[in-house]
Amino acid sequence: MASAAGEEGTVRFGIIGCAMIARKLSRAIGLAPNAAVVAVGSRSLEKSRRFLSDNGLDAAPSPPTVATRRSSQTRAWTPSTFPSPPASTCAGGGAAASGKHLLLEKPAALCAADLDEILAACDAAGVQFMDSTMWMHHPRTAAMRELLSDPVRFGKLRTVNSIFTFVAGPSFLENDIRVKPELDGLGALGDVGWYCIRGILWAVDYELPESVVALRRPVTNAAGVILSCGASLVWKDGQTATFHCSFLANMTIELTAVGSAGTLHAGDFVIPAEERSAAFSFSSCAEFSDLHTSWGPLPSRHVVSSGLPQEAQMVAEFSRLVGGIRGAGGKPEKKWPDITRKTQLVVDAVKASIERGFEPVVVGS
Amino acid sequence: MASAAGEEGTVRFGIIGCAMIARKLSRAIGLAPNAAVVAVGSRSLEKSRRFLSDNGLDAAPSPPTVATRRSSQTRAWTPSTFPSPPASTCAGGGAAASGKHLLLEKPAALCAADLDEILAACDAAGVQFMDSTMWMHHPRTAAMRELLSDPVRFGKLRTVNSIFTFVAGPSFLENDIRVKPELDGLGALGDVGWYCIRGILWAVDYELPESVVALRRPVTNAAGVILSCGASLVWKDGQTATFHCSFLANMTIELTAVGSAGTLHAGDFVIPAEERSAAFSFSSCAEFSDLHTSWGPLPSRHVVSSGLPQEAQMVAEFSRLVGGIRGAGGKPEKKWPDITRKTQLVVDAVKASIERGFEPVVVGS
């Protein structure tokens, strides 16, 4: 990373927050060919120093304000990553206002109104915004998209189901920011649910659903934070989707998209079970045999290798976009804030449906 | 089959209805070591004769009343299979009343009240009732049950999702009994949906859900018969389930059960993709790696071979139960009518929820 940091075109990152996910991001920035960590900020200098030392980083420990300072060493804006709780991502708006490109941990905000402030600041400053949904950048995702877009092999999308659950241990359920109403009040919905919703939106090529109905029996902790919930979504053209997200069930990461002619299934779509390759299965035009004693063709298994882990692919793509803006006076890629906002709108609608006793909620725009 | 038919203990079947599924059953009866077809009835003698000839059967063509006649050749009651439309399965009650054991195609009835008449007749006559849900009898199902029952490896059930869809061609959508309100008015819900619901009930060990909410955007044909629908189910102890069933989407047969410690997934749970063996995957106590860059242990793949196809296993089990009743004055096995009835109650609740504008419907008892 040290050598890369000196090269032309290297994008310099300041990281705010020293949670585990920041370690993952820091490693990813190191792996990406066009990025380097130059500063780390957290609630205390001591924590920042420890983070730098633990992760073998040659960068400056800084208070959180680092994200709002322009780099003195390059002409580029220093992008900021925020693995911080969304309740504090208002800092993101400040960073953007001072010209920092922004790679923001999910959930991007506690509600779309909060997100819109950040996005408006990015827009005004002309900086790139992207949420840190890493699986979007795995080459497997592009391979799956190619099949979903195939009018013959997949046809028209009919329904999607997504599940993301893991078992949060006692310490997580007691202390993690994702169970604290004042820090990350969206709980499992904003964490694992974010990925389920993104997976569904990805499958429908980001068309917003018409309405959302939360499923009954969500589980909340004593402070009212969601530990487990689900919802059903419908689109005006008749597509449907369901998801279930939870901190209380064995690790399960499923995405199943069923079309008029094909079926796609990935058993680890958010985090590949192995770092350097990822699989999915796809079946097309399957039919029963005579007498319905079997069926086929069977789903085929597709394995897609990835030279870099998906989080490093994300950092590389983000850095590429940043480089295009600062190098050639280019514009930020609108796709990324757009899909963040759509994801947040669905998160908001699910939460509203739970609060309104499982009534259908029209998804905002 | 001819030789088996002469052996002691062979249970003799009359088949009513000559649909494709009757051919599958007829073959299954031939494969089972303790069963034989002795009569076939349909709406016309000509159809019955053709069926016998096409399937190489040495049995008597009969009008539908065959099912209500006691076999003159053995002291056993002749069990009847009914691959007929449920609207005509009232004949099943008649068959039972005259002492025939009953293996009934799904959906067992158009509503629980109709089913109860059949079950009451079976009960009064002391005959065995079983619905023809073949996958229940595959040894894979027992292997999956063993894991679901494991308090350490699977733990407590949290959620289930099931999908069963296939593409019905133009002729099916025009002519099949499953799209005719006067024949099988439950449409996709009574057909593929029956299996989804049975899969869910199987996963919760047949505890009835507290309530059911149909998902929005079911698809019906011009006559109002369901071609595609879904629902969410909740249990008083907090378990949840969702399913989607359809005649309008690529062949997809999924069951995913997620517990507090384990996850079971079968991609062909109703009809194994191959006839003589079937697979499922199971993962237990999976955790993220350090930095959440991967996770494991990965799901393990379990393959269960079956000496007989699942439909022949079903016939053999049914015949074994019948043999136990007639040989030793045994009682019918109550498990089978019980789970048929529970499945029918959930079918009824889903249909009621659709009719009531997607309101939650308490599941009857």
UniProtKB/TrEMBL annotation, chains A, B:
Domain annotation Gfo/Idh/MocA-like oxidoreductase N-terminal: ranges: 11-130
SUPFAM superfamilies listed in its UniProt record: Glyceraldehyde-3-phosphate dehydrogenase-like, C-terminal domain, NAD(P)-binding Rossmann-fold domains
InterPro entries linked: Gfo/Idh/MocA-like_OxRdtase_N, GFO_IDH_MocA-like_dom, NAD(P)-bd_dom_sf
Segments of this protein annotated with the region Disordered: 54-90
Compositional bias per record (Polar residues), positions renumbered to this chain: 68-77
A GO molecular function held by the record: nucleotide binding
Residue span(s) of domain GFO/IDH/MocA-like oxidoreductase: 152-264
Family to which the UniProt record says this protein belongs: Belongs to the Gfo/Idh/MocA family.
Protein name, UniProt field: Uncharacterized protein
